[in-house]
Structures are given as structure tokens and as C-alpha cells.
């Protein structure tokens, strides 16, 4: 079984040293200790390796939203679920600043970000539509997109400030600013 985490770590280290565009599959194979053939069997593109952590974050978000109490304020549920979707794994947090720099500065990765984050946004939008039944679907999508943008901004700010502390705590602080503005929530 392929250790996707090890592949991701090796690839990120290589891309940090040489750049994303300057590395091909053979260099990735050498850096990760996995054959080119195996990499190509598991990943359709190099960018798929770069985005490997987003699907688990989406699952953590989905699980947290599903466990939320029906009587809890939507803003609290949303914030708590998003913060819970951010990995608190020490190794992930150590690599996060380099990953954030990579995905925000590499044109190919920046261009794929909207498609990659869409399942995360759709998960949150579906929750909002359920909790705010009078809100149009487009508004729920817009709110979920705003939360994704605020989450990403908090992570970038955390990385740019030296990645001190837990990045999930930075996300929590950022999203608390949004709490009173979510429809259906009591003013904080």
C-alpha cells in the first residue's frame, strides 16, 4: 500500500528546493522512494500530490458538521467544524508553511485551487442550506466560499507570521470575526 503521506512530504521537500514547475515525475520518484510507474498509477498529476491533504480536511469538516447539535448556533457549529477540519498533527503543521507558500505562489496549483476546494465549500453550503432554510442556495454557496477564503487567509497569515502556535487556533481567531454576521446566529 502506498504511503501517500510520505509521498506528499517528499514531494513538498523537493518542490521547496527546486520548484514545482522544474520537477518531473522521475525526480519525484527519486525524492519519494516510489517508482515513477507507481506514482502515475496513484496520481493523475503532480498537482494531485500537492493537494493530498484537502480531501481528509473535507472529511473532518463533514464529520464535525454531522455531529453538531441541532440547537447549537450555526456560527458556532461552522467555526468549530472548520477549526476541527484543520489538522493539528505536528508534522502537518511543520510542513504547512511551505505547502501554503507553494499552493499560493505556483500558478498551476493556484489555478486548480477553486476545483480542489469545491467539495469542502459544497459540504459547508449544504449544512448552511439545511440550517438556514429560508436562504437561497446561492447565498449558502457564497457564505461557504467566504468561510473557505477566511480560513485560507488565516492560514496564510499564520505562516507569514512565523508559524508560531497551532494553525487551527489562528483559524479560530479569524472565524470568530465572522460569527455575528452569519444569518440565524445570535450576535456574539
From TrEMBL:
Start and end residues of each HTH tetR-type domain? 1-61
Keyword DNA-binding attributed? yes
Asked if the keyword DNA-binding belongs to this entry, the reply reads yes
Q: Which residues does UniProt assign to DNA binding? A: 24-43
Q: Keywords assigned by UniProt?
A: DNA-binding
Which protein is depicted? TetR family transcriptional regulator
